Please model this.
Amino acid sequence: MTTLPRHSRLNRAARRAAVAVGVLALPLAGDAYTLSTAARILAIGLLAAAVAIVTGQTGLPTLGQTAPYAAGAYTAAFLAIHLHTMAVLQVAAGAVAGASLAAVVGLLLAHTRAATHLMITVAVGQAVVTAAGDWTPLTGGSNGLLTPTVRPLPDLPILDSDLAIYLYTATVAGLALAVAVVVVRGPWGMLLRAVRDQEPRMVASGHPTSRYLHLAHCAAGALAGIGGALLVTVQQTVTPGDVDFDTASLALLACVLGGGRLRGAVAGVAVILIVRDVIASPFAGHGPLLVGTLYLAAAYLLHSRPGRQLTSRVSATIGRLRPRPADGPPLPARAGETPDAPDTVAAAPDAVAAGGPR
Amino acid sequence: MGWQVGVYVLPAVDGVAYGLLLFTVAVGLSVAYGVAGMLNLAHGVVFAAGAYLAAAWHPTTLAGLAAATGTAAVVGALVGGALSVAAAPLAGRGQMPQVLLTLGLALLGAQALTAIFGTDDLSAPPPSVWAGSIRLPGGWVYPTYRLAFIGIGLIVAVLAQLLVYRTKAGALVRASVDDRQMLSCLGYPALAVNAAVLAAAGGLAAGAGAVGAPILGAGASTGPLVMMVSLVIVVLGGLSNIRATLAAALAVGELQTLGVAVLPTLAPFLLFAATALVLALRARLQSRPPRWVRP
Model:
């Protein structure tokens, strides 16, 4: 794909940007509830994209990405309450906080693989939720923190309406996601996918694989931290309930639904939240029931024959809608699957989880 | 110095009780993972189901507590057996489908529990015989029920030990961890072994929930908390070595009670720090060359 002529690469980038802007502009047609739901989808979507970096691209199943997400959210809230109400500062601080926490935790996590990684990430996530509930002077305990309204930059208007909040969230999330997608698509992401698929071979050729995984954790932590900062802007509050185990498992489900890709994970969050908050709204209180069913459906369809047929049919349909069929990151395909089938990436954690490649 | 140490004696005894409770939960998780390859993230909900059952039953006599525990164990065993049936089609597809299945079941189970028992946290009083406190040698006063609980936990730990290392069923379990194909060749179908192990694990967890209800109570956060701590114990204790699991459970129990008493602010991260320390030490020991290679 990188061998395409320069003008056609630019063309494709422009088309992708246009599609992204179009998708982000869709909720503008809806009411205030649609706008706030869409903004929340984008904030949690960045968390799911971070899970996609760690689980989908790097092959380490994680339920602990809520830890840097929480660090970002609480840092942003603290900043807005005590220091400054400039939203861009919040985003930067959230990214730094998320990356720092991930860097510390990653010292251990980068040396574990597969199920052990999953189990320890559960402990990490739970530790942060407990801390958020216990350190009341800093975090407000189980009541959480209420944050003031903010303005993106000193000269811009204050974010006091759902429309303004959505426009701001869409801009920041779109930029963060674009940067992440470009990085993951490039040589760095290639290294991560290589570790995921053939770690012994990478080690044999002299790659410090654990250091790559540590860096992947830091990058994913920064992305999750930005997501947390955006969540604070969207909700103007943060509680331990926003960063608990349910959120972590929701992000993992979104990552699997999205085929382990970053944009796919955001789409996965959109599907889950729409099922939970929009489709389930006539049946009050039964949202979790539908989401639970979604988990079971994903469990039985993932890696199954009907599931593969479904995903290849969906991607074929999308391919037909697009002018160019081969539009996706250059992913290693498993035998018998087309490179376009989203299943390929989600297959990876299990290759590692099953004890690593031979 | 004497009284300063004295302050920490009761949390330390609490830690033994908590550790034994966690052992009962974690041993099922560990054996299910070792034998059936099943990382059961719904295990905490089974524990919570037992706790809710005992709290709603409200037994005041020993016989009532025994009946509640027995019922909880049967329910837990049924859930475990059903889980093995539900997971059977996912065999050979790697870990992720199982993780999603158990996460989904945990969500649905928690939903069912709040639908049946309400959203409030329930508390269960201990049976009236064990309701008071007892004076320990040394002048400390300690709740009778917790002391009795330590006794029950020790009995369970010894029985589990005997079951795994001294009976044929235990031999099958250990053989299944080592070489499942060979076990199938000998006429023990993997599916049946899995179902038995998951049923036993579920029964143990729900039973522990019922007996532990007077200490821990029953609430929405019970399941995830016990689940997380048990996962750490499985990581620390390794697979299918009951003694290591017991040691890890007791250490984690102490960390969660004594550690909280000594270092309240850092308590949330103590568990993680200890895990990191143990794993780092273990990696160091394993990467060190054998003695005869060293100079």
User: Anything to note?
Assistant: Confidence is low (pLDDT under 50) at residues 324-358 of chain A.
